[in-house]
Amino acid sequence: MAGPTGAVNSANIFTGGPDQAVTGAVLSAPIGTTLPTSISGTLPAAFAASGYVSDKGLSLTPNRATKDIKDWSNTVIRKVLDSFDNELEWENLETNEASLKTYWGDANVTVTAATATTGTQTKTAVNSEDLPHKAWAFKIKDGARKVLIVIPDGQVTSQNKIDFVRTDAIKWGVKLTTYPDATGNHIYIYTDDGVFSA
Hints:
Elements lengths: L16 E2 L7 E5 L17 E2 L9 E12 L5 E17 L4 H8 L4 E4 L8 E4 L8 E10 L2 E15 L12 E7 L9 E5 L6
Antiparallel strand pairs: 1-8, 2-3, 2-8, 4-5, 5-10, 6-7, 8-9, 9-10, 9-11
């Protein structure tokens, strides 16, 4: 009688550090930007990084809610999907154009270039307008192992509290909600185990 297949392999254990050797690990682009279809190669130039992320890293929470179907005796005989989405959460550590646009919305942030007497200046308008839909990419690295998370359509739908204190960085924490693409997929996750063939 055959036993179970698939030997254990510690090379398949990934940790979730950022892949930010060239750019930051959290990037966004206008909705409709051509998306990568594998982990190989580079992201299109339209993807802009938002800088350092706090030590809380990135969290991804699938939200799958179901509804009960009951028979005459009130016994649950089936569950059907009622709603589905995903939330990604992170905190930008840098206060820059990209992080402010992620938190407050692109149209609400105006940048004035540095001069001989002033640094780069930003003006942010805070209002109740919906934040924009964008394409997103999250790059993760563990030595030679890599993970690329691609979101065809994501929108910041929740903002964390901002603390202005002397003893810590100002953090721009957000939650991103995903929406389905034309094929019904919310997220694509690509991996490379870093083990090359002989």
